[in-house]
Amino acid sequence: MSLMNAPIDRRKFLLSSALIGTGVSLAGADQSPAGIGIPATSVPRFFSGCCAYSYRKYLQPGPMTMEDFIEKAVDLRLDGVDMTGYYLKSTDPTYLASLRRLAYRKGVAFSGAACGVNMVNADAAMRAQAGTDIRKWVDIADALGAPHLRIFAGKLPSGATLQQSIGWVVEAMKAGCDYSGRKGITLGVEDHSGVTQQADVCIEVMHRVDSPYAGINLDITHFVPTATQDSYAQIEACIPYATNTHIRDKFDDGSAIDLDRVGGLFARAGFKGFMSAEYEGEEDAATAVPKLVEKIRALCKKYSTV
Questions:
Q1: pLDDT single digits (tens) 178-228
Q2: CA proximity to 17, closest of 214, 242, 262
Q3: Cβ contact 293:81 at 8 Å
Q4: How far apart are CA 149 and CA 141, in angstroms?
Q5: Which of 2, 24, 41, 211 could, after both became Cys, cross-link 177 (CB 3.0–4.6 A)?
């Protein structure tokens, strides 16, 4: 039996991921496939970022444009921005090139791009279309110069099992990573509402996809607590696989997030990457996003070497 067809022991995945970088081995556990997970080091590197989605109430109807968003990043002294694809006025190469040039001239990195592609669908034709859409958005990310693309798994369809849905996600991500890898772009599946709201599922997907161009777009707010793992434990378990991070200060149920605790988890795991504000509260983004960015900047200063 090959490793990719072997039964997945989720408890072993979670425990072994928590031990990555500690020098402690898990006796009897299967070894991780090559290229899975990011080796922890003692040198965390956090960069401040913001998702365009944070300004959706200004971007969707106007008056803000994506050019304005890049300028806002300068005002907020951000290291980079996540270009949420919903708000691009065009995917024409000339327009994408103009955004790329503007960001470069302003000294703002594109931490990644984001699209709304869902990989879980009981209809084979719809799954095939999702694969086509992933390739399209990889090309858009490539044109922008964004090294990372956020995608979704999706919600469990009526009549389908969780294992079926995981299989569909794995199939789509394998094909997507084969394509994105040729362009040096990583696909990050978000732990969003649906089949990936449990850390064990996210980690199973990573092991079965088995690609250096696969990762978890780790949104710290979305995990559903279980009897054995609260949200913090699930965040910690997924950090070794995190290729992009979305930061908010409240969980989905409205309870406050201990961001200092979260920062410590990422630091101990040796995380290197963007801590991107993704605001979704009731306060106006014009005043709320700068506050969240300042919290993120404080984490970067406290826990990072840069």
A1: 999 999 999 999 999 999 999 999 999 999 999 999 999 999 999 999 999
A2: 242
A3: no
A4: 7
A5: 211
270-285 residue pLDDT tens: 999 999 999 999 999 9
Residue ranges of the chain with pLDDT lower than 70?
Answer: 1-41
Asked if 170 and 8 count as a contact pair (C-beta separation under 8 A), the reply is: no
Beta bridge partners of 272: 45
Domain ranges of the chain: 41-303
DSSP 218: E
> What type of residue sits at position 248?
R
pTM for the whole structure: 0.87
Q: Are 238 and 244 in contact (CB under 8 A)?
A: no
41-303 classified as CATH 3.20.20.150: yes
Question: 72-110 burial by CB neighbour count: b if 16+ within 10 A, else e?
Answer: bbeebebbbbbbbbebbeeeeeeebeebbeebeeeebbb
Q: For the chain, what is the total number of helices (H) and then of strands (E)?
A: 10, 8
* pLDDT tens-digit series, residues 101-116: 999 999 999 999 999 9
**Rounded-to-integer distance, Cα 22 and Cα 60, Å:** 45
